[in-house]
């Protein structure tokens, strides 16, 4: 899945409000996005995973979702049909399908801006062909939900853009990025996401992916990484430590803000004590089944 172009992801649907006991409050699972939230700002994690406060989508995120949907549909076609023009032709129906599921998104793309928006998405789909030729291989799965529970009870869950398996058995994890290739700090964040997926595959399939591959469509660049098992085991301990810290905060409700330059993009800045705001009353740690539906950012990251 992709890290979205905007630092503030989007929650789909109508989450129950803090303190609402009329609906089951699902226990959060740990995803790359939620782990990243806690590392960035524990209070942001609380707002998204515990309070489940709604956030408005950005135009960039919606465009990313359209591109992901078009590429997913592309790989459902026979290899010989996966030519550039066919991929471009899939952009409009992908947008129409997304809009049918979430009609409010039309506010982000008014009618007089639709052609420009779709042309931007088509340009990204066209740029994909500079990085790969989808007529030359088969994908095992696209937009694949992956999940595992670690030995210490940490439930990991995410959605992978594409998983390829070579005839000789090697596994490649592929993620589409609709933004430009990142600088060093952002590159580390991107690799965090891919190591997360690699660890889940190690635990579910018993194999280390041969390659983690990130395709940056806007800049036409590729970032590849070959993990090893020892590295993934160390990463597993890192995730367990993050989850332990989350659970400790969950018991007391002490999710402290961690101000940074990213605060300027936060949908919940007005509720943050660091900026004179007051968070809603802490609803307590959710004890129901683990959250099942992906957030918007899990689809486009």
TrEMBL record:
<feature type="domain" description="PD-(D/E)XK endonuclease-like">
    <location>
        <begin position="30"/>
        <end position="273"/>
    </location>
</feature>
<keyword id="KW-0347">Helicase</keyword>
<dbReference type="Pfam" id="PF12705">
    <property type="entry name" value="PDDEXK_1"/>
</dbReference>
<dbReference type="InterPro" id="IPR038726">
    <property type="entry name" value="PDDEXK_AddAB-type"/>
</dbReference>
<keyword id="KW-0540">Nuclease</keyword>
<keyword id="KW-0269">Exonuclease</keyword>
<dbReference type="GO" id="GO:0006281">
    <property type="term" value="P:DNA repair"/>
</dbReference>
<feature type="region of interest" description="Disordered">
    <location>
        <begin position="280"/>
        <end position="301"/>
    </location>
</feature>
<keyword id="KW-0227">DNA damage</keyword>
<protein>
    <submittedName>
        <fullName>RecB family exonuclease</fullName>
    </submittedName>
</protein>
<keyword id="KW-0547">Nucleotide-binding</keyword>
<dbReference type="InterPro" id="IPR011604">
    <property type="entry name" value="PDDEXK-like_dom_sf"/>
</dbReference>
<feature type="region of interest" description="Disordered">
    <location>
        <begin position="1"/>
        <end position="35"/>
    </location>
</feature>
<keyword id="KW-0067">ATP-binding</keyword>
<keyword id="KW-0234">DNA repair</keyword>
<feature type="compositionally biased region" description="Polar residues">
    <location>
        <begin position="1"/>
        <end position="22"/>
    </location>
</feature>
<dbReference type="GO" id="GO:0004386">
    <property type="term" value="F:helicase activity"/>
</dbReference>
<dbReference type="InterPro" id="IPR011335">
    <property type="entry name" value="Restrct_endonuc-II-like"/>
</dbReference>
<dbReference type="GO" id="GO:0004527">
    <property type="term" value="F:exonuclease activity"/>
</dbReference>
<keyword id="KW-0378">Hydrolase</keyword>
């Amino acid at each position: 899945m992709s890290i979205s172009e905007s630092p503030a992801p989007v929650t789909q649907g109508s989450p129950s409000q803090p303190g609402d006991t009329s609906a089951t409050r699902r226990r959060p699972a740990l995803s790359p996005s939620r782990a990243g939230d806690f590392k960035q700002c524990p209070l942001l994690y609380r707002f998204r995973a515990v309070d489940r406060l709604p956030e408005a989508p950005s135009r960039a995120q919606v465009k990313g979702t359209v591109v992901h949907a078009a590429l997913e549909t592309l790989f459902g076609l026979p290899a010989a049909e996966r030519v550039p023009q066919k991929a471009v032709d899939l952009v409009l129906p992908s947008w129409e399908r997304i809009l049918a599921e979430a009609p409010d998104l039309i506010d982000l793309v008014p009618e007089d801006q639709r052609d420009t928006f779709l042309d931007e998405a088509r340009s990204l789909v066209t740029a994909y062909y500079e990085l790969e030729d989808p007529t030359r291989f088969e994908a095992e799965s696209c937009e694949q939900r992956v999940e595992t529970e670690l030995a210490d009870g940490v439930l990991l869950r995410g959605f992978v853009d594409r998983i390829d398996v070579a005839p000789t058995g090697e596994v490649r994890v592929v993620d589409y990025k609709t933004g430009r290739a990142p600088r060093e700090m952002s590159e580390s964040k991107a690799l965090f996401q891919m190591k997360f997926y690699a660890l889940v595959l190690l635990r579910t399939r018993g194999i280390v992916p041969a390659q983690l591959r990130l395709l940056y469509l806007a800049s036409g660049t590729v970032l590849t990484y070959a993990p090893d098992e020892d590295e993934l085991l160390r990463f597993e301990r890192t995730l367990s430590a993050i989850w332990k810290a989350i659970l400790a905060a969950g018991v007391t409700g002490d999710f402290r803000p961690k101000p940074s330059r990213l605060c300027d993009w936060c949908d919940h800045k007005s509720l943050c004590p660091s900026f004179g705001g007051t968070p809603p009353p802490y609803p307590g740690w959710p004890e129901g089944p683990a959250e099942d539906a992906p957030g918007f950012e899990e689809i486009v990251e």
